[in-house]
């Protein structure tokens, strides 16, 4: 059932995936696998072929346990990817529900390896399915047989994200860069991956350091204010040329960047937003944001809030300053 729902969410045919998931249970009943665990999947594939199943279904069974270890390949077939994902998420949620999550160095059910394999399959196969949805699918099926506590889903998510951070550190990404991307409104791991890679390239630009510092400054200012800000910015209240210039640049970029963000094109979005460096620096050089006039102060804070929300739709640059 988990395989079928994952396939449905990916807009794929669930026939082969569900059959492969069922046939994979052959391995659990195999005396040979009990004696030779390295044959997990391999024996199931042979049983499936012997039973007259199509080669692609048998191949999915054979790839059930991939990746088996660090550096191992992920399943090559779509059936194999879905079966491996469903098995891993079902195991993670089930063992967490049983109160047996890993602690310290103890991980008797190899949940860390399962979570890392899940992360790799989702990212490297570019499978666009919400991580929260994936966890919820497994929890929904398990709730038919045991109690699922409300805190279970966020606990499993946190565990997977911990493995995700390790995966990116092994690829050479720094902790701050990873945290900046994780602070964005990502949903699927391929979406997060695009954000992180775009951010990594962007931080090599000269403008990036200045804009990261500005985002941090804006974030600090906004956290300290109790005023209710407005979505609408009144350009008739501008006194300085620098605040009008910044407003005009943001308004122009809204029309260009938002469609790119909706397409998941974070690299070109950051390329366009890098042009804000000079108007942002000029704004802070000329304008006193916390003016004594309440209306002026709220209008300027609203402008800065709009600017930060635009960047935050990609990543939290303030983490990088």
Q: Which helices and strands appear, and what pairs or packs with what?
A:
Layout: H1 2-9, H2 15-24, H3 31-35, H4 42-50, H5 55-62, H6 78-97, H7 111-124, H8 131-142, H9 152-170, H10 175-182, H11 189-202, H12 206-223, H13 241-262, H14 266-273, H15 277-286, H16 294-312
Helix pairs in contact: 1-2, 1-6, 2-5, 2-6, 4-5, 5-6, 6-7, 6-8, 6-9, 7-9, 8-9, 10-11, 11-14, 12-16, 13-14, 13-15, 13-16
What is the helix/strand order?
Answer: HHHHHHHHHHHHHHHH
Beta-strand level of the residues, as a percent range? under 5%
Largest sheet, strands/sense/barrel: none
Number of helices: 16
- Average pLDDT: 88
Helix fraction, binned, reads: 55-70%
Oligomer: single chain
Q: Spans of 5+ residues with little confidence (pLDDT < 50)? A: none
What distance lies between the first and last C-alpha atoms, to the nearest angstrom? 46 Å
The gross shape turns out to be: elongated
Plain-language structure description:
This protein has 321 residues and is an all-alpha fold. It has 16 helices and no strands. It has helices at 2-9, 15-24, 31-35, 42-50, 55-62, 78-97, 111-124, 131-142, 152-170, 175-182, 189-202, 206-223, 241-262, 266-273, 277-286, 294-312. Helix 6 (78-97) packs antiparallel against helix 7 (111-124) and helix 13 (241-262) packs antiparallel against helix 15. It is elongated. It starts with a helix and ends in a 9-residue tail after the last helix.
Features:
321 residues, mainly alpha, 16 helices, elongated
In short:
The chain has 321 residues and is mostly helical. It contains 16 helices and no strands.
């Amino acid at each position: 059932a988990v395989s079928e729902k994952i396939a449905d969410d990916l807009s794929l045919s669930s026939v082969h995936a569900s059959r492969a998931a069922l046939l994979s249970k052959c391995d659990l009943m195999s005396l040979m696998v009990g004696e030779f665990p390295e044959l997990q999947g391999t024996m199931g594939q042979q049983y499936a072929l012997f039973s007259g199943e199509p080669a692609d279904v048998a191949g999915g069974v054979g790839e059930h346990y991939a990746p088996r270890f660090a550096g191992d390949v992920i399943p090559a077939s779509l059936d194999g990817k879905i079966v491996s994902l469903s098995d891993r998420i079902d195991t993670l949620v089930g063992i967490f529900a049983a109160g047996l999550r890993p602690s310290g160095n103890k991980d008797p059910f190899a949940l860390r390896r399962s979570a890392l394999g899940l992360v790799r399959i989702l990212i490297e196969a570019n499978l666009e399915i919400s991580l929260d949805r994936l966890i919820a699918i497994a929890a929904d099926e398990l709730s038919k047989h045991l109690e699922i506590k409300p805190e279970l889903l966020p606990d499993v998510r946190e565990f997977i994200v911990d493995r995700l951070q390790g995966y990116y550190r092994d690829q050479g990404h720094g902790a701050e860069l990873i945290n900046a991307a994780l602070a964005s409104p990502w949903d699927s791991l391929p979406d997060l991956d695009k954000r992180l890679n775009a951010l990594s390239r962007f931080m090599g630009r000269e403008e990036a350091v200045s804009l990261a510092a500005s985002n941090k400054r804006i974030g600090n200012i906004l956290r300290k204010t109790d005023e209710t800000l407005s979505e609408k910015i009144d350009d008739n209240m501008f006194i300085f040329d620098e605040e009008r210039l910044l407003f005009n640049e943001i308004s122009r970029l809204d029309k260009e960047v938002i469609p790119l963000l909706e397409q998941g094109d974070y690299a070109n979005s950051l390329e366009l937003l890098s042009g804000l460096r000079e108007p942002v620096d000029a704004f802070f050089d000329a304008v006193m944001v916390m003016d004594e006039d309440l209306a002026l102060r709220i209008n300027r804070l609203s402008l800065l809030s709009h600017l930060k929300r635009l960047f935050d739709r990609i990543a939290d640059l303030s983490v990088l300053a």
